[in-house]
Write a structure and sequence with these properties.
The protein is of the alpha/beta class and 293 residues long. Helix content is 40%, strand content 19%. The longest helix has 22 residues, at 80-101.
Length: 293
């Protein structure tokens, strides 16, 4: 399959590109900079220059391929307004890619977060939130899945709060960044809240499986660790950086503060049973041992 991918140089995207190329697929990857283009070409992908706001480039890429994986997302999370702009940009991109595939029965796989359900681990059957700080992502993903009635084999891979590789990535990576900035390995609340996690290389396998075989209109959970306590995550970070570990105000983490404070475990039992996906790489707490002082 010739696959168009956006976000192909990120923590998840670079692993997905390698996974696709290593399993007989070819890749056309969107690149917004010379550095990204060089990295993608070095990995063996063909490059299409443009960014997520370049809707013409997105239409061109989708038209040239047998399937699409959409991973790109803005990098500015400095304020609620910046996060809202990134979510809106992603929504416009998904709508554009989906429209290009109408009537083709070609697959498109997008990404979202696992939902949170009070009192239990969320499952693939739980709906995404469509209000709150990230509700726009849920609405965009739902709209893409609704295109199944128009001949699009759309599917969503829901990612946990931390997608990690060599001690970097996801919400845990933001905790590391905050610890280095403030001199404290902090966590909001009492730290008992749980975050699900997955290694980027395991997530990449799931994206490939969903692209190749998932039924239209389905959602899947890329969850290896159902829920690590945030206090335990901060404890490893503090030990690796030689910093004190303590509770800090939610505001320390900017617009993500309220999300960081939530208990949000997630299950991937259905995904494993239905697609045969089995994570094999280190869990989050083990992988955080790679954080460098």
């Amino acid at each position: 399959m010739h696959v168009f991918i956006t976000g192909g140089t990120g923590t998840i995207g670079s692993a997905v590109v390698a996974e696709l190329l290593g399993n007989g697929h070819t890749v056309l990857a969107l690149a917004r900079s010379d550095g990204s283009a060089r990295a993608l070409e070095g990995a063996g992908a063909e490059v299409l220059r443009g960014d997520l706001a370049d809707l013409g480039a997105l239409r061109s890429g989708a038209a040239r391929c047998d399937g699409v994986i959409s991973l790109a997302f803005g990098r500015d999370y400095s304020s609620p307004d910046a996060l809202a702009r990134a979510i809106a940009e992603e929504g416009d991109a998904l709508a554009t890619l989906g429209r290009e595939l109408i009537g083709s029965d070609r697959p498109i796989v997008t990404v979202s977060g696992t939902p949170w359900v009070p009192g239990r681990a969320s499952t693939e059957a739980d709906p995404l939130p469509t209000d709150g700080p990230v509700g726009g992502r849920g609405r965009s993903v739902n709209a893409l899945l609704d295109l199944t009635s128009q001949g699009v084999r759309s599917a969503a891979v829901r990612m946990p709060r931390t997608v990690h590789h060599q001690g970097r990535g996801g919400f845990a990576g933001l905790l590391v960044d905050a610890a280095r900035r403030t001199g404290v390995a902090g966590y909001p609340g009492d730290g008992a809240q749980r975050w699900p996690a997955v290694h980027a290389l395991d997530a990449a396998v799931l994206f490939r499986l969903v692209l190749e075989s998932a039924p239209a209109g389905t959602a899947w959970h890329a969850v290896a660790d159902e829920g690590d306590a945030v206090r335990d995550i901060a404890t490893v970070i503090g030990r690796r950086l030689g910093l004190p570990v303590e509770t800090v105000p939610e505001e320390t983490f900017g617009p993500f503060g309220p999300i960081f404070a939530m208990d949000q475990p997630a299950s991937s039992a259905h995904t494993r049973d239905a697609l045969g996906w089995q994570p094999t790489h280190p869990g989050l707490l083990e992988d955080l041992e790679n954080v460098q002082p």
